[in-house]
Amino acid sequence: MHWLIVGASVFMLGSLALAWLSTGVRILRVSSLKTRFPAHDNLVKAHIDYLLMALLLMAYYLVAKSLEMVYPGWVITTMLIGGAMNPFTFIIVAMHKPEDFRPGKVFKTITMLSFTITTLGFAAAAILVAF
Hints:
single chain, flat
């Protein structure tokens, strides 16, 4: 179960890195970054999403610890994979001009898989905690 805290720490570091990247694009106006991330508003979305995922993982870890319970491995795995994949899709979108971005079947499939995995993991954890 310690992987929840490890994942939360990694997501927190990723969120901080994205905050600085967003600052470089939006405030410092680094031209190479602006070129690489034309839809830079999505970097802020990724930053917030990684931060939320980190906080959720920390919360579920602390709740389980206080209740002296252990989540099944598949719940932890889906929470970590989904928590990493969901925000990452915003980074992919940020790398394309909004008018040019046409998500293909692969992107849509990965996105839906990510949403499904995240939903399963966090819903299962919530049910296990509640009951």
